[in-house]
Specification:
Elements lengths: L1 H27 L3 H4 L7 E7 L2 E4 L7 E2 L5 E2 L3 E5 L4 E6 L5 E4 L4 E7 L2 E8 L1 E5 L11 E6 L2 E14 L5 E13 L5 E3 L8 E4 L6 E4 L6 E6 L6 E9 L2 E7 L6 E4 L4 E10 L5 E4 L3 E8 L3 E4 L4 E5 L4 E8 L4 E9 L7 E7 L4 E7 L2 E11 L6 E2 L3 E7 L14 E3 L7 E4 L4 E8 L7 E8 L8 E5 L3 E5 L4 E10 L5 E4 L3 E7 L15 E2 L6 E4 L6 E10 L2 E8 L3 E4 L5 E11 L11 E5 L17
Parallel strand pairs: 9-11, 16-23, 25-32, 34-41, 42-48
Antiparallel strand pairs: 1-4, 1-6, 2-3, 2-5, 5-8, 6-7, 7-10, 8-9, 10-12, 11-12, 12-13, 13-14, 15-17, 17-20, 18-19, 18-21, 21-22, 21-23, 24-26, 26-29, 27-28, 27-30, 30-31, 30-32, 33-35, 35-38, 36-37, 36-39, 39-40, 39-41, 43-46, 44-45, 44-47, 47-48
Organism: Bdellovibrio reynosensis
Keywords: Signal
Protein name: FecR domain-containing protein
Length: about 600
C-alpha cells in the first residue's frame, strides 16, 4: 500500500511541475516590455485610431496597443477595418502611417530597420530624418528585392501575390535585386503627376465656409477625359466628378475627414487609358482666430479723437501665424494696416478718427500654406456720450481635456459623444456652446447645444467620425473664446476577446480519478466567466465563475467539449473561443490491493 501512495505522490508532483512550467512560460511572455530587458526599442506608437494590435516576437497571442508604447525588434502590428496608427521611429523624425486592414512586421537587420508589409497599405515619411547621421537605414523587403526608403516619402501597398507597389512621392528611393544591382525607383515612377492637392498633405479648410477641393495633374494622354474617384477606403472608390475633355483640373466638394482617391483617364467612347496611384488626403476643419475685441458691429466710446483701438483675439494651439487687416471703407480699398503675428494676441491701432472701420483676421496653420480668413466685420468709433456703456469683454482660453485615448469612444446602446474642457477664467463664462459635425456631413447640418458644465454627453444619431468644438459665451451670448476643432471616432463597444484555457495547445487531460483542475487567462473588462460542458453535443453543465480557476469532479470516463466565454459589465457575452477537448481516462492509476498470504483455521 505504501508503494501505491509513493506512486501517487510522484505523479502529483510531476503533473504540478509541468503545469507550473507552462504557466511560468505564459506569464513570462505576457509583458512585452519586461521580456525585452535592456533592449532599445525601434519605434514608439503615435496616435491610435480604433483598435490596434501588436504581437511580440516571443508570443502567439495578439495584444491591444496604446499610444506611447515602445515597439521592439520582430514585433508585428495590425489594424482593424477602420483602425489607423502612426509609428514614430527613434533617433529621427521619420514615421510611418499604417492604414486600415494592414499588417506589418518591424525588424532590425544589419544596421537597418527592415519593414515586411504582409497585407494592406502604409505611408512612410523617411525624407525628414533621412540625413540624420545617427538614424539607421530604412528598407522594405519585397519579392523583387530590398527597397531603400531612407531618403524618401512613399506610399506602399500590397499588390497581387507577394509583390509590393511602391509610389515615391518625395525624395529618392532605390531597389536592390537578387543580382546586387540597384535601380532608381524615382525615375521609374508613372508619368501621371499630381500637382494639387499634394499627396499625403492635409487640406485645411475654413469650417464656416468650406470650398471645393481643387485637383490638378499632368501626364494623361491627349484626347482624354479625367474622372475623380473617392472613397473611405482603397477598396471602396466611386466616381464623384469628371473634367472636361483634355482638361488638367477639376474641383470636387469633399466633406471633412479622411479620403482615398485616384484619377482615371478615359477616351470619349469610355475606354480606360490611364490611371493614377491611389492617394490619401485629409480635409481638416480650421477656424479663423476668435476676435474678442472689438466684436462685430460694436460701438467704441472715444473720450477724445483721434482714438487708439486695441484689437484682442484668441488663436488655436496649432496656429503658427495670425494676420490682421483693417480698412477705412466698405469696399476694402483704403487699407489702414496689415499685420502678422507669431504669438501676440493683441495689437493697438493708433489715432483713429470717429467713423466706421472694417477688419478681418486670418490664420496660418502648421499643416498648410494657405491662410484661413475670417469674415469681414465692422466697428464704429463714436464720442463716449453717444455710446451706451457695455460690459468689457474678457477673453478666455478654452481647451479640451480628454486624454488622447478618448479620441476613440465607444457605446453599447445609445450613441453619445463625451467631451470635457477647461477655461482659465470660468467665472466670466455664463454657458458653453458645443458643436458636433459628422465627418461626411454638410457644415450647415452641425448640431449645437448649450450647457453650463465643463463636460457633456452629447447624443448623436449614429456611430462614425465627428468634429467637435466648444465656444465660451457670456450672459449676452457673446463668444469669449473657442477650442480648436477636435476629430473623434464613435463606435459600438467591441465584444470582449474570448478567454483561453491553459495550456493553450493540445487536449486537456483529467487525472486518473476523474478530477480536473482548469485555469484560463483573465480578460480585461470581464465581470464573470461561463463554462459549458458538453458530451456528444448534449449540454451537461453550465457554470458561472468570478475568478479564473475551477476544479471539475465526478466526470465519468470519456471525451468532453469545453466552451468558455466572458461576460462584460453590460451583460454581453464575449466572442466564443475554440472548443477544447477534455479527456477523462477510463482506467484508474490505482491498483487493487493483493493478498499475499491466506491463512485458514
Amino acid at each position: 500500500m505504501k508503494k501505491q501512495w509513493k506512486r501517487l505522490l510522484v505523479a502529483a508532483l510531476s503533473s504540478s511541475s509541468v503545469f507550473a512550467v507552462t504557466w511560468y512560460w505564459y506569464q513570462s511572455t505576457g509583458n512585452s516590455n519586461s521580456s525585452y530587458g535592456n533592449e532599445k526599442p525601434l519605434a514608439y506608437v503615435g496616435k491610435v485610431v480604433e483598435d490596434i494590435q501588436r504581437r511580440p516576437a516571443s508570443r502567439l497571442l495578439w495584444q491591444l496597443v496604446n499610444t506611447g508604447e515602445p515597439l521592439y525588434n520582430g514585433e508585428a502590428i495590425r489594424t482593424s477595418e477602420k483602425g489607423e496608427v502612426r509609428i514614430q521611429f527613434v533617433d529621427s523624425d521619420r514615421y510611418l502611417d499604417l492604414e486600415p486592414e494592414s499588417l506589418i512586421v518591424i525588424k532590425r537587420s544589419q544596421g537597418e530597420i527592415a519593414l515586411d508589409l504582409m497585407e494592406g497599405s502604409l505611408f512612410v515619411n523617411a525624407k525628414a530624418g533621412g540625413d540624420s547621421k545617427d538614424a539607421p537605414g530604412l528598407v522594405l523587403n519585397s519579392a523583387n528585392g530590398k527597397v531603400d526608403l531612407s531618403q524618401a516619402s512613399a506610399s506602399l501597398s500590397k499588390g497581387k501575390g507577394n509583390s509590393v507597389d511602391v509610389q515615391v512621392l518625395e525624395g529618392k528611393a532605390s531597389i536592390k535585386g537578387s543580382d546586387g544591382k540597384s535601380k532608381d525607383l524615382t525615375s521609374a515612377t508613372t508619368e501621371i503627376k499630381i500637382l494639387a492637392p499634394l499627396p499625403q498633405k492635409p487640406i485645411a479648410m475654413d469650417a464656416e465656409a468650406p470650398q471645393p477641393v481643387q485637383f490638378q495633374w499632368s501626364g494623361f494622354p491627349a484626347n482624354t477625359q479625367v474622372s475623380l474617384w473617392v472613397g473611405s477606403s482603397r477598396k471602396e472608390l466611386k466616381e464623384v466628378a469628371k473634367s472636361d475633355l483634355n482638361q488638367s483640373q477639376l474641383s470636387a466638394n469633399l466633406p471633412f475627414g479622411r479620403h482615398y482617391w485616384k484619377l482615371v483617364g478615359t477616351t470619349p467612347d469610355g475606354k480606360n487609358v490611364a490611371e493614377s496611384t491611389i492617394y490619401k488626403s485629409e480635409v481638416l476643419a480650421r477656424y479663423a482666430p476668435t476676435v474678442v475685441f472689438p466684436l462685430s458691429d460694436a460701438e467704441i466710446p472715444a473720450t477724445a479723437t483721434p482714438f487708439d483701438v486695441t484689437f484682442k483675439w484668441q488663436k488655436g494651439d496649432d496656429t503658427r501665424q495670425t494676420t490682421l487687416e483693417v480698412w477705412k471703407d466698405a469696399a476694402l480699398k483704403q487699407k489702414l494696416t496689415s499685420k502678422s503675428f507669431a504669438s501676440d494676441e493683441a495689437f493697438t491701432l493708433p489715432a483713429l478718427d470717429a467713423g466706421t472701420y472694417y477688419y478681418r483676421m486670418g490664420a496660418y496653420f502648421t499643416d498648410s500654406d494657405k491662410p484661413i480668413l475670417g469674415k469681414v466685420q465692422k466697428f464704429t468709433v463714436k464720442p463716449a456720450e453717444q455710446v451706451k456703456v457695455q460690459a468689457e469683454i474678457i477673453p478666455v482660453q478654452v481647451n479640451f481635456t480628454m486624454p488622447e485615448a478618448q479620441y476613440s469612444q465607444y457605446f453599447v446602446q445609445n450613441p453619445k459623444v463625451g467631451l470635457s474642457w477647461k477655461t482659465d477664467k470660468n467665472e466670466h463664462v455664463n454657458s458653453y456652446r458645443v458643436k458636433l459635425l459628422e465627418e461626411n456631413a454638410d457644415p450647415s447640418s452641425a448640431t449645437s447645444l448649450e450647457v453650463k458644465d465643463l463636460n457633456v454627453q452629447a447624443p448623436v444619431t449614429k456611430p462614425g467620425r465627428y468634429i467637435a468644438s466648444v465656444e465660451a459665451l457670456n450672459k449676452d451670448g457673446q463668444v469669449l473664446g473657442t477650442t480648436t476643432s477636435q476629430p473623434l471616432t464613435l463606435a459600438v463597444l467591441p465584444l470582449l476577446k474570448s478567454p483561453q484555457l491553459l495550456p493553450a495547445e493540445g487536449n486537456l487531460q483529467a487525472a486518473s480519478d476523474g478530477k480536473t483542475q482548469l485555469e484560463w487567462n483573465p480578460v480585461e473588462g470581464a465581470k464573470e466567466y461561463w463554462l459549458v460542458i458538453r458530451k456528444q453535443g448534449k449540454e451537461l453543465k453550465r457554470s458561472k465563475y468570478t475568478n479564473t480557476t475551477t476544479s471539475l469532479k465526478n466526470l465519468l470516463p470519456g471525451e468532453y467539449d469545453l466552451e468558455l466565454t466572458a461576460m462584460d459589465t453590460h451583460g454581453r457575452s464575449s466572442e466564443v473561443g475554440p472548443i477544447r477537448k477534455l479527456l477523462v481516462p477510463d482506467k484508474s492509476g490505482l491498483k487493487a490491493p493483493t493478498l499475499k498470504k491466506i491463512k485458514v483455521n
